[in-house]
Amino acid sequence: MELIDGNVIAASIIAELKTAVSALAGRKPCIALVRVGEDPASISYVRKKEKTAADIGLESRIILPPVSIAQTDLEKLIDDLNADPAVDGILVQSPLPKHLDERTIFRRIAPEKDVDGFHPLNLGKIAQEDPTGFVACTPAGIMELLARSGVDLAGKHVVVLGRSLIVGKPAALLALQKKAGANATVTICHSGTRDLPTLTRQADVLIAAIGRAEFVTADMVKPGAVVIDVGINRVADASKKTGYRLTGDVHFSSVAPLTEKITPVPGGVGPMTVAMLMQNTVKAFHQRSRATR
Ligand code: NAP
User: Fold this and answer.
1) Fewest 10 Å CB contacts: which of 6, 9, 142, 222?
2) Distance 168 CA to ligand 1 centre (A)
3) Which positions are annotated as active-site residues?
4) What is the rounded CA–CA span in Å between residue 268 and residue 276?
5) Longest distance between any two alpha carbons in the chain, whole Å
6) Coil, strand or helix at 105
7) Separation of CA 161 and ligand 1 centre (Å)
């Protein structure tokens, strides 16, 4: 069994981006980070994104509207960022306060600045295998982890657990693409799937993204499979200062010995998301520069 170390792989992507950005003459790529309200998790996520952007040499603009901002005012703010030629990427930190319609806000972001990859046009571009699209950071991170760990999906049976728009569906579409590193046979499972273990046991590569702590047990995994655990779940643990520990969707201690390769939680898919956000921002910068030349 080999651990796929997301921290190491993300660090090399960040180092590559830093080299590429330092070679740019003139304006640097710029990401606008919009955080509404004071949710502690959102504060920490945005801080991490801001810090990573600074490490790479990207510009970032932090926009902190009050929690009470009206939908129309947030839409206006997005419109202004869309129109601003100095902004290449726009990220609106999720979750938004309950009175705001997140889906409408995500759709408001100009597709060419949608570095989170949540706009329907960008999801559609994955289906069309159009490389100008932006792939959501978590599924993009999964593909990058696989590629950089030497896992070629061609001809393999990939089973994706979960069909969310931000993880399961795009991950399945990416594995299905007719191109190098992908070209897999893909099965997507969800809460309506019958006899899940029979399907998961057929997986050469199992991607678990359901949000159920330690759901995937040893009897559900084929020996020699590659397992990507996307889940981040809190489980009560009185021995921890925080009162909880983080765990994935896979029961790591029983599944890991069976596998060829597996991602840990934390330290697997998680660190990749910020790296992919930065990669998308640099891509947006280049695509927008080409478009205005
Ligand atoms: P989500 O939107 O809640 O979707 C969960 C999916 O799993 C749904 O398609 C659901 O099926 C399916 N599901 C739930 N229970 C199931 C069961 N018992 N059997 C089979 N399928 C089941 O979650 P998400 O946003 O995709 O996130 C999934 C997990 O990944 C969460 O733990 C989340 O915290 C984590 N995550 C991690 C990262 C990262 O950076 N590492 C990023 C994003 C998410 P239905 O469609 O039928 O309801």
Assistant:
1) 222
2) 7
3) 49, 93, 116
4) 14
5) 59
6) helix
7) 8
Provide the sign of the torsion angle of the four alpha carbons 4, 51, 81, 112, taken in this order: negative
pTM of the predicted structure, to 2 decimals: 0.97
Is the Cα torsion angle 260, 163, 276, 62 positive or negative in sign? negative
Q: Which atom of ligand 1 is nearest to the CA of 269?
A: 41
Query: What is the CA(28)–ligand 1 centre distance, in A?
Result: 35
Residue ranges in the chain modelled with pLDDT below 50: none
3-state secondary structure of 55: helix
**Residue 291, pLDDT score:** 87
Strands (E), the chain: 2-3, 30-34, 59-63, 89-92, 157-161, 185-189, 205-208, 226-229, 233-236, 244-247, 261-262
Domains 24-114 and 137-270 in one fold? yes
Beta strand 244-247 pairing with 205-208: unpaired
DSSP string across 69-89: --HHHHHHHHHHHHH-TT--E
State which fold the 24-114 domain adopts. Answer: Rossmann fold (3.40.50)
Residue closest by Cα to atom 39 of ligand 1: 270
Topology of domain 137-270 in CATH is: Rossmann fold (3.40.50)
CA angle centred on 220, ends 251 and 260, rounded to 5° = 75
Spell out the domain ranges in the chain. Answer: 24-114, 137-270
* Ligand 1 pocket mutation, candidates 190, 229, 272, criterion most atoms within 8 A of CB: 190
CA distance 52 to 65: 22
Q: Which amino acid is at 100?
A: L
Burial of 39 (0-12, 13-18, 19+ CB in 10 A): middle
| Tokens 């057929």 sit on residue | 202
